[in-house]
Amino acid sequence: MSNEVVIITQARMTSTRLPGKILMRAGERTLLETHLDRLADVGVPVIVATTTNLSDDPVVELCAALDVPVFRGSENDVLARYQGAARAHEARHVIRVTSDCPLICPDVIRAGLDTYLSLKSGSVYLSNAEKRTYPRGLDFEIFSRYSLDFAAENARLSSEREHVTGYIRTSMPDIHHEYYLDEENLSHWRITVDTDDDFKLVKLLIEDHHAAEMDYPSLKGLLKAHPDLEKINFHIQQKTI
């Protein structure tokens, strides 16, 4: 049965800066559980795209317990992994997110998806991260299955295959870029988990402030009310692609 839209989130245990981070716990749940729970509120099917590595067996086991479908593919050719996941679930459009964003906001993704679908085009790439106003950790990209298949068949550079949308963004013929922007630029905030200090912040947000139950306006209000929180990981430099 085909799906109009699916969310595919990439997840693996072999993070270079913080190995095993997606199964670290904040509150009573792992970061991956919180991530998947929030994605479920978008209202479209969610698939976890992980690797065939034995180290990712715990990811598969957790997803099985949560009744979340998994697709396993190459560790380094993430583009092919995404294509395999999209094919397996007969998706017509894909929302790409990453599992190091436990506090990703479903209300933001849903609004972005509504905008994307209103354009009624298979040649649109819409993201809130290409021109950034949202904090890191709320990133999403939306594109058609046609664009994904075309990229998988034509991308040659290892960087294009490792980072999934590089070919779509820079080399896809006739692609139309749409930038999903917030009225306020808070791109200097980090709510992603890539280092110990990132995890320290997210753990505090979840355990002390119940951030896992918040929509984006509430999360924004929380961080503005506690400016000391953003200082915890303000010094972290994002890895370059």
From TrEMBL:
InterPro entries: Cytidylyl_trans, Nucleotide-diphossugar_trans. It comes from the Bacteria. SUPFAM superfamilies: Nucleotide-diphospho-sugar transferases. GO terms for cellular component: cytosol. The keyword DNA damage does not apply. The keyword RNA-binding does not apply. CDD domains: GT2_SpsF. Pfam families: CTP_transf_3. Keywords: Capsid protein, Virion. PANTHER family: 3-DEOXY-MANNO-OCTULOSONATE CYTIDYLYLTRANSFERASE, SPORE COAT POLYSACCHARIDE BIOSYNTHESIS PROTEIN SPSF. This is Spore coat protein.
